[in-house]
Amino acid sequence: xxxxxxxxxxxxxxxxxxxxxxxxxxxxxxxxxxxxxxxxxxxxxxxxxxxxxxxxxxxxxxxxxxxxxxxxxxxxxxxxxxxxxxxxxxxxxxxxxxxxxxxxxxxxxxxxxxxxxxxxxxxxxxxxxxxxxxxxxxxxxxxxxxxxxxxxxx
Length: 154
Hints:
Blueprint: H1 3-29, H2 31-65, H3 71-88, H4 92-102, H5 104-114
């Protein structure tokens, strides 16, 4: 299936669904509580992303210290970012999807479905000059301090 019709349908359908849900929820609980609920989900989402994102980055750093590729941890951090963005976007449908992504159980299920489909490639090349450390550490050795003066060519 071609992705363009699916993307076009999502770009039109999701905002329409969000507007519909705003009208329905606003009709049931009122306009002010609807606005408060929308702001509250954004604040809760930001707090959840901060807490869980920090933990995911710590796990990625631990994997790197063990010389392992932190593919799952990086994918989890990306999922947290997407979930957080969905919670900040005003709307109840995007909030529901965002909370599902931030909920550890559903995120683990989602990642278990995505990871086998992904191809993880790690490239490590220490022979390229650009990948070497440059600076004072590279030029370790004897340092001779002095002054010089340029003289014009005669």
